[in-house]
Amino acid sequence: MATMTTLPLRLDRDAPGPLGAQLSSRIRDLVVAGTLARGDRLPSSRALAAELGVSRTVTEQAYEQLLAEGWLAARRGSGTFVASTVAPGVAGPGAAPRRRVVQPAADLVRLDAGTPWIDPRHAAGWRRAWREVSAARPPRGYDDPRGLPELRAALADRLARTRGLSVDADEVIVVNGTTDGLRHLLTVLPPGPVAMEDPGYRAAVETARGVGREVRDLPALAPVRDLAGVAAAYVTPAHQHPLGRVMPGADRVALLDAARAADALVVEDDYDSEFRYDVAPVPALASLDRGRVAYLGTAAKSVAPSLRLGWLVAPPELADRVNARRLVTHEGAPWPVQRAYLALLRDGYVDKVVRTARRVYAERAPRVAAALSPYAELAGPLAGMYSTWLLPAADAVRARDAARRAGFEVNLLADYCRTATLTGLVVGFGGVTDDELDRALVALVSAL
Length: 448
Ligand SMILES: Cc1ncc(COP(=O)(O)O)c(C=O)c1O
What we know:
By secondary structure, this protein is α/β, with parallel strands linked by helices. The chain folds into three domains: 1-102, Orthogonal Bundle (Arc Repressor Mutant, subunit A), CATH 1.10.10; 109-114 and 351-447, Aspartate Aminotransferase, domain 1, CATH 3.90.1150; 137-350, 3-Layer(aba) Sandwich (Aspartate Aminotransferase, domain 2). The chain has helices at residues 19-33, 45-52, 56-69, 123-135, 149-163, 178-188, 202-210, 249-262, 316-329, 335-346, 349-372, 393-405, 434-447, and strands spanning 41-42, 72-75, 79-82, 109-110, 172-175, 194-198, 215-219, 232-235, 265-269, 293-298, 310-313, 377-378, 386-390, 408-409, 411-412, 424-428. The strands form four sheets. Strands 5-11-10-9-8-6-7 form a seven-stranded mixed sheet, with helices on both faces. A hairpin with a 3-residue loop joins strand 2 and strand 3. Helix 2 crosses helix 3. The protein is globular, with a radius of gyration of 28 Å. The N and C termini lie far apart (68 Å). The protein binds pyridoxal-5'-phosphate. The site of pyridoxal-5'-phosphate has 14 residues, from helix 6.
């Protein structure tokens, strides 16, 4: 154990803030840097005050603060030491080196499957909604974890109107997006694996794994006939992600039969069904069996992924369990976001952005098809804000690399596969401008 008589630190009297706080921060830095090791004894507050030319109140304040934070420990009669245990998670000597955070390449324009087109002409409606939020009063405490009653009523109304789902406002649970809704369901479901489409939505797979569920691969295009031993099956029936197929009626019936036989829940992720431009949106699977299917909707495709807003309609007994848990954990959706979305729904903003985006996609999807169809096979009908193209792996990689060189990031289909071996490209056309889309297509085509 070393005894420190002189600490390698200097105080800056011109810096803003009290000297005591500055001193405690400098000592904390010395511990974090390892200059002061666990067990090292510090000079007495009187000696340190003399050394630094400050009043003893300053050094006493600093020591008291660091004692309270657990960086230092006092032993009666023998002085003040660097504490030998540093709280877990606190960076200190020997703490794990900082991990590099994986981030998408910032300088590439992403042709993501999930980013919608938002017409800038609707900006006034957006601003009006948020002005209304700023003038409204937030609830005083933790509100109903199911969400704002008026929003749930507006969502129930919209689900009936656009998705053929006749639900009561009381059955709607507002969540922080699809993955959050899925997490809530999987947290209260009985133990057991979750069957998930392969290729499929990676965020959903990671969410299931994140709550400790084993993930079983469901071949995305094959009818599901057996769910024995499975707690839930997660599917995207209106627009299989990422192959784009609509689940045929017979497969819907087979899936529900298999779920009933196994007493498994079906989780329907209805993320972008409103964006059909050839036919009316196909009705939600949940409309066939409300007692067996939990329905998940999201504001991510119509308004913005960054809102982190979604809704869940679950069979009653399961919904009760989700609500009871959220009542305890306070995991409601943020009030300002709910309040803004209510205004956006009420003022017709959501309907308007969906209508204009649908027109934009209806024009862009054939453009993508015209460029890529000579080289690749379209995996599903043209719908939504992306299309998926089957290609040999080497061609797909070559095209992806050419797009990168031109400044664009296009996803490889293989990255959505777990045991499936499909290869090709997933080309999003929502989150880009017309010009960007054209340039990205030129780059892809030049490589193909
Ligand atoms: C299949 C699928 N489901 C749901 C979502 C939206 O998820 P969230 O509501 O969590 O933003 C996306 C977004 O890309 C998606 O691709």
